[in-house]
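Summary of Year 1 activities. Much of the first year was spent building the evaluation harness for sequence design. The harness presents a backbone, in tokenized form, and records the residue chosen at every position. We chose the following record to illustrate the format because it has been used consistently in internal testing since the harness was completed.
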């Protein structure tokens, strides 16, 4: 397992094909909004001309307890991560394609894949962390501490079943804005709050 760092994000993907069968020329369409996921990865891990070594992001592809695929990207060891959506989507697709054979492994440096349920992924990412479920009607974020895990949906909110699975980890219901934000923007705001001790 790659080092996860003290600031962690988990994004639940709802429409991206779990087998990686999508075109890099149609990220919003055949990719099931994998463009959103690519932006979330960049927002979680990239700063100007560098990568956050203390951060990681996991993406869950699937349907709750019946199992799915997960991809974890560790800022402490990832390579070949660039700020453009297409190349990041290609890294995610490569991991999903390699996961077709089952089991787990490393798709490329710092990017691991596995078949597991959402609760299993949560258990890994939440280990030793405060857990925050990002919600519009949650309590406004004040005094965020590290290590923390922040859980959110992609372009869609978590389903009731998914939210219930997060509830098993006793999350704090946290809001980071008074208006609705895109998922990648939520991650940017969380990183800003952590960077500035808020």
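For this record, the design step produced the sequence shown next.
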């Amino acid at each position: 397992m790659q080092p996860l760092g003290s600031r962690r994000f988990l994004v639940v993907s709802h429409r991206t094909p779990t087998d990686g069968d999508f075109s890099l020329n149609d990220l919003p369409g055949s990719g099931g909004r994998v463009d959103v996921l690519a932006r979330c990865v960049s927002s979680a891990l990239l700063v100007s001309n560098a990568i956050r070594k203390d951060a990681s992001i996991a993406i869950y592809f699937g349907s709750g307890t019946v199992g799915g695929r997960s991809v974890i990207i560790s800022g402490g060891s990832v390579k070949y991560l660039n700020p453009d959506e297409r190349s990041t989507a290609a890294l995610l697709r490569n991991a999903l394609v390699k996961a077709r054979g089952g089991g787990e492994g490393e798709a490329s440096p710092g990017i691991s894949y596995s078949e597991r349920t959402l609760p299993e992924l949560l258990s890994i990412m939440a280990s030793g962390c405060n857990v925050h479920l990002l919600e519009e009607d949650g309590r406004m974020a004040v005094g965020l501490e590290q290590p923390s895990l922040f859980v959110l949906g992609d372009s869609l909110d978590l389903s009731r079943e998914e939210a219930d699975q997060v509830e098993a980890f006793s999350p704090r219901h946290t809001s980071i804005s008074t208006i609705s934000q895109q998922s990648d923007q939520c991650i940017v705001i969380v990183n800003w709050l952590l960077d500035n001790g808020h």
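The first helix runs from residue 34 to 45. Quantitative recovery figures across the full test set are reported in Table 2.
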